[in-house]
Amino acid sequence: MQGMSQVIQVMGAMVIFSLILMNMNRFMVLNDLALIQNEYDQVAMAVGQSLINEGRVLNFDEDDDPAQFTGPYSLGPGWDESRTDPSKDPYDDFDDFNGYNVTKNINGVDYQVDVEVCYVQQSDLDQCYYGSTTFHKLMTVTVNNTYMDTPIQLQTVKSYY
Ligand SMILES: [Ca+2]
Ligand SMILES: [Ca+2]
Fold first, then answer.
1. How do the domains of the chain map onto residue ranges?
2. Cβ count within 10 A of residue 14
3. pLDDT tens-digit profile of 146-156?
4. Cβ of 2: how many Cβ atoms within 10 Å?
5. Measured in angstroms, how far is the CA atom of residue 52 from the centroid of ligand 1?
6. CB atoms within 10 A of CB 153
7. Whole-prediction pTM value?
8. Centre of ligand 2 from the C-alpha of residue 149, in Å
9. Distance 13 CA to ligand 2 centre (A)
């Protein structure tokens, strides 16, 4: 009888031990996932930031004369402009990036990059405005991959002086 209760005790200890192991394992997996998410976020931010840097150094608009600024619904590259096609002219102004999208493979992971450029009003710099041209344009870069919980979004406003 005594031997029997010892066996039961040992079995009980084994069950508890394996429960502890399973929990530890779960904790380590969660921790790894958080690290990976963090790495995705960092890569996505770097990708977005480099596009923002690229756009910021360009002219405000295709035309230097405010009376001739591109209309709010016509922002984007000219027919003869492309960021990737070497037979065309490169982007030369900020809003050429409007509608630009690309998939970048980094360390075996595909990142989808989408860029939107719109006019904004001084009083509301984070809200697209289509009423007329203004002296401010907002660029929004969204970067995502299928494993990320939420996409990374970076914004910058370029103003005409
Ligand atoms: Ca252009
Ligand atoms: Ca343009």
1. 2-159
2. 10
3. 999 899 999 99
4. 5
5. 16
6. 14
7. 0.82
8. 33
9. 71
